[in-house]
């Protein structure tokens, strides 16, 4: 009971100016993270410069939980590149390797077929109904670098959202009750 | 300033920074490796060469692939992904690349190999342009590191030609 009284006292004793300072510092941290993310999007030319590998279709090269750094340049798509693409109607991007390229003479448009290294068949089963080839606008970026295991944090937070809430709650509590 | 929480936080930040730095250096060291891979591909046999019901040409080949990719492996290499692609041009398409075979090489010892197989993936054209077509066979490789930047390169072998008539 005395502990509850102490907490109530400490919340009552927060001055309004101190509260604003803390809120603004928190806001600055969140905003600078956002700035860094948007700057990365600009530099790499891709809508999502970092992706987490979610499935085992590219093993043993990329395992579930690895993160990939993407880059999208105007260079034409060529066989062997590892590309990240979105299928129409699905929002989870897929990371697979290009195995076939047919590039048109005049327009430079390109038909692309992909396949996961660890899959038996190509990706036609994953494409939209009746779609045989991917086109340039489906491709979000090429994988240029990779870091192992770092993506598990994101996977855990997505699959067990309760952990995300616990973390944010604990962070919020820490901010409110800290002395400086 | 000296509470457990502060110390744990400082330690964790420092550890993560050092880890990131080590990963970057490991990846950077890959730039200094001396690479001289070699390969040869022979077409042993054209198994069949037909026009499919909906109009596209398809050919099935038996290939003899000899390669030595051992110099591509560094201490930071997890695997090398090698594949052979047929590359040619047609009147409609400026470039066609069709992957015929690929393999994952997990270790340096497996990187010097000799293999005779028929094409793993179907060699299908967009159209019926393959009769008498000259094409290149290119061995591509993709070095996937334990951490950091991936490297890719290729050897182009030209002078291959498909027969003038279906069989």
From TrEMBL, chain A:
Gene Ontology CC, one term: signal peptidase complex
Reaction(s) catalysed (UniProt annotation): Cleavage of hydrophobic, N-terminal signal or leader sequences from secreted and periplasmic proteins
GO biological process: signal peptide processing
Alphabetical list of InterPro entries matching this protein: LexA/Signal_pep-like_sf (IPR036286), Peptidase_S24_S26A/B/C (IPR015927), Peptidase_S26 (IPR019533), Peptidase_S26B (IPR001733)
PANTHER family assigned to the protein according to its UniProt record, in alphabetical order: SIGNAL PEPTIDASE COMPLEX CATALYTIC SUBUNIT SEC11 (PTHR10806)
Sample GO molecular function, one term: serine-type endopeptidase activity
EC main group: hydrolase
Membrane-spanning segments: 20-40, 162-178
CDD domains: S26_SPase_I
Keywords noted in UniProt: Hydrolase, Membrane, Protease, Signal-anchor, Transmembrane, Transmembrane helix
EC numbers: 3.4.21.89
Family recorded in the similarity comment: Belongs to the peptidase S26B family.
Coiled-coil region: none
Protein name: Signal peptidase complex catalytic subunit SEC11
